[in-house]
Write a structure and sequence with these properties.
This protein is an alpha/beta fold. The protein is built from 18 helices and 15 strands. The strands form 5 sheets. Strands 5, 6, 7, 11, 12 and 15 form a 6-stranded mixed sheet that branches. A 3-stranded mixed sheet has the order 4-3-10. The protein has a two-stranded antiparallel ribbon with strand order 1-2. Strand 8 and strand 9 form a beta hairpin.
């Protein structure tokens, strides 16, 4: 009889272990494919709770029954903890962005978010991001009236203004220099050409653009946008059709799409301890306890994130130049939509010499030659910002990671306020001399 009890207990434990493995695997699939978690450790804890209740009801010994009853407190606490920290981390982690049915991610309308970065007790920035009712980065003192001229700036975090206050973004500078224009900041951190195309193709910005009697459309390109079109930072997903046109597929990429960004020549080997550690990262309790709350880090912690010694995105040698045909098809379709729908050309600012991407200026020639071939008018940041900008990169290559004319810091290589002010002055000058012209929208 005793032997049967031990066998039953062993089977229950094996069933719980199998359930745990299945739940952890399912959670990984749900995170990648659908963007949500099933709180695996809450489910696993519920399994432990059920097992303890089963043991407490089956045992005849009062001491064991009492012990199993008291032990149920631990999984109960963990279930409550996982649910509470899931709510804290998933629903209160940031109001800056939110899921989006078309884009995958979009800026959250009417939200305010404070961002702080401190390294070795040195304040890098302490800023506030404000999104307006349309989900655009707020532009102070902007013109707001019907039948106006609009400058519409698209791009990623360089346009949005990561690491900068609302008054230091490119559109804030433009609203000061061109008070007769409304400057619209359509940037979103991690965004690129694929998001600009989806916004235009699905008319997501029509509530803003409908009031613009005349438009100027400017897209800021950084080299990393080539990778973003392939999914490295998420959706929307586009693919080339049989005629070479960029076609919208979905608001996210699948795990197989992202496998190309694995830089390892062979599959990585993980020890059992590493595998367990990786699975524990799915615990919301652990995430909350181990996540820094103040935005303060040490140089050693930053180097663990950015081993090159400065903030940058990775270079992926597995991606070949021919893979970027999709990106340039996306840009071509943006140009076609602007001409057809808004009677406007596409103007482009190219961040050449860009250390924000770890491959530095590897793709500069490819980007510039492709834009020229497509007949798109563009200007290079090395021309707009001049010698000091080029010297920023030269200093990095010499090992000087502390002195930047146009970057916020070695730990945040987004453009600083000085860069945006100079870029805004350049745009204003081009508008004044007629190189950039506002086009009547036809609304």
């Amino acid at each position: 009889m005793l032997r049967n009890k031990y066998l039953t207990l062993a089977l229950w434990i094996l069933a719980w272990l199998a359930l745990s493995a299945i739940v952890l695997k399912l959670d990984g699939v749900c995170r990648l494919e659908f963007g949500f978690s099933i709180m695996p450790f809450a489910i696993i804890s519920a399994g432990v709770l059920g097992l303890l209740i089963y043991l407490a009801t089956k045992t005849k010994r009062k001491a064991l029954k009492l012990a199993f009853s008291y032990l149920t407190i631990a999984p109960l606490c963990l279930i409550v903890s996982e649910a509470f920290f899931y709510y804290k981390l998933e629903f209160h982690k940031s109001t800056q962005v939110q899921p989006h049915a078309v884009l995958g991610t979009s800026n959250t309308p009417e939200s305010t978010t404070r961002k702080t970065l401190i390294v070795d007790d040195k304040l890098i920035y302490n800023v506030i991001y404000t999104n307006d009712k349309n989900g655009l980065r707020a532009t102070p003192h902007n013109v707001e009236s019907s039948a106006i001229k609009c400058i519409n700036i698209y791009g990623g975090s360089f346009v949005y203004g990561d690491g900068l206050n609302d008054s230091q973004t490119i559109t804030a500078m433009l609203s000061t220099k061109l008070p007769n224009f409304q400057a619209n900041n359509f940037g979103i951190s991690g965004g690129g050409g694929h998001q600009m195309l989806a916004r235009l193709e699905f008319e997501l910005d029509s509530s803003v653009l409908k009031d613009c009697a005349e438009n100027i459309f400017i897209y800021e390109i950084i080299p990393h946008h080539l990778y973003r079109a392939l999914g490295v930072f998420g959706g929307p997903k586009y693919a080339l059709d049989s005629s070479g046109q960029a076609t919208y597929i979905a608001n996210h990429f699948s795990p197989s799409d992202l496998a190309r960004f694995n830089n390892d020549s062979q599959a990585r080997y993980f020890t059992l301890a590493q595998r367990l550690t990786n699975q524990l990262e799915k615990s919301y309790t652990k995430q909350f306890i181990t996540t820094p709350k103040s935005g303060a880090k040490s140089t050693e912690e930053m180097l663990a994130i950015f081993p090159s010694g400065y903030a940058s995105n990775a270079y992926h040698p597995s991606i070949k130049e021919q893979d970027f045909a999709l990106y340039f098809a996306i840009v071509a379709k943006i140009q076609a939509i602007l001409r057809e729908r808004y009677n406007a050309p596409l103007y482009v600012l190219v961040w050449d010499y860009d250390m924000h991407a770890q491959f530095l200026d590897k793709y500069d020639s490819l980007i510039q030659e492709s834009l020229a071939k497509a007949g798109i008018k563009f200007w290079k940041m090395s021309e707009i910002l001049g010698d000091e900008y080029r010297q920023d990169l030269a200093r990095v290559r010499r090992g000087d990671l502390e002195h930047f004319a146009y970057r916020i810091s070695r730990w945040d290589t987004h453009p600083n306020a000085r860069a945006n002010e100079q870029i805004a002055s350049f745009i204003a000058e081009q508008i004044e001399n007629g190189s950039i012209k506002a086009s009547k929208s036809g609304f």
